[in-house]
Amino acid sequence: MSKSRVTAEGGMATSYGFTPVDEGEKQQLVNDVFHRVAKRYDVMNDVMSGGLHRAWKDAMVAALNPPRKPGWRFLDVAGGTGDVAFRIVEASSRQASGVVLDINGSMLAVGAERAGKRRLADNLEFVEANAENLPFPDNSFDAYTIAFGIRNVPDIDKALAEASRVLRRGGRFLCLEFSEVQMPILDKVYEAWSFHGIPRLGQAIAGDGEPYRYLVESIRKFPSQPDFAAMIRRAGFARVGWTDYTGGIAALHSGWKI
Ligand SMILES: C[S@@+](CC[C@H](N)C(=O)[O-])C[C@H]1O[C@@H](n2cnc3c(N)ncnc32)[C@H](O)[C@@H]1O
């Protein structure tokens, strides 16, 4: 286990990366980060992960395996610039429809423009809202996805309760998130890359290292795979499990509403 990781689920609401903040302050700071990076977000994602985020998102959507028939609806929370939602629609042979929900209008604006260019606008709605208070009735969706989003949400338990509420019975919950590296040598390399490489690249390419420092620190604060699985179970999901990607740099957690 990396020394800097905080494994207890408490504390995420009152920490901005490694910096303690007042409850309520975290969301504003997170929003500032994504307003600042929105236009460069997709390029920086590729640079920072060496393109790996694409393979992880492909694997997430393969695990979801959306049906190729109309009427199936998904909600992609913290959907940002649309990467996961686009993949889901394509995997359903453009039959699925869904909502890309994000608290940040700058990220959604980039996503909506990309959707238009890909001719996916008819399948997708872009909604600005908070994962902790979803503006949808109970039992509205067949699937709930969230990729690299949940660690930014101050009250994770509240977001999980909302996920369970808006899913239909039999609905699938899938969460892709940076996680705890399980291989000692990879852990060392990843640590060096994260704390030195990524903020410097952010500074060099995007002209601003600070948002990338937050991203790295917030990854270290996020609960380990078993601790996060326990939180998902406590929210009422069944058959909860996870799959590590790239030695645990990322993990896909899965559960079902029954
Ligand atoms: C790292 S980006 C991930 C974007 C996209 N899912 C992806 O994988 O490329 C994190 C996103 O979480 C969003 N976010 C942060 N807090 C949120 C909240 N409370 N509710 C909804 N979205 C939130 C941010 O605005 C940002 O777009």
Automatic annotation (TrEMBL):
One of its GO terms (biological process) is methylation. The keyword Methyltransferase applies. S-adenosyl-L-methionine binds at residues 81, 102, 130-131. CDD domains: AdoMet_MTases (cd02440). This is Ubiquinone/menaquinone biosynthesis C-methyltransferase UbiE. It is an enzyme of class 2 (transferase). The keyword Glycoprotein does not apply. The gene is ubiE. Belongs to the class I-like SAM-binding methyltransferase superfamily. MenG/UbiE family. Methyltransferase required for the conversion of demethylmenaquinol (DMKH2) to menaquinol (MKH2) and the conversion of 2-polyprenyl-6-methoxy-1,4-benzoquinol (DDMQH2) to 2-polyprenyl-3-methyl-6-methoxy-1,4-benzoquinol (DMQH2). PANTHER family: 2-METHOXY-6-POLYPRENYL-1,4-BENZOQUINOL METHYLASE, MITOCHONDRIAL, METHYLTRANSFERASE. Keywords: Menaquinone biosynthesis, Methyltransferase, S-adenosyl-L-methionine, Transferase, Ubiquinone biosynthesis. GO terms for molecular function: 2-methoxy-6-polyprenyl-1,4-benzoquinol methyltransferase activity; demethylmenaquinone methyltransferase activity. It catalyses: a 2-methoxy-6-(all-trans-polyprenyl)benzene-1,4-diol + S-adenosyl-L-methionine = a 5-methoxy-2-methyl-3-(all-trans-polyprenyl)benzene-1,4-diol + S-adenosyl-L-homocysteine + H(+); a 2-demethylmenaquinol + S-adenosyl-L-methionine = a menaquinol + S-adenosyl-L-homocysteine + H(+). NCBIfam families: MenG_MenH_UbiE, PRK00216.1-3. Transmembrane segments: none annotated. Its EC number is 2.1.1.163, 2.1.1.201. Pfam families: Ubie_methyltran.
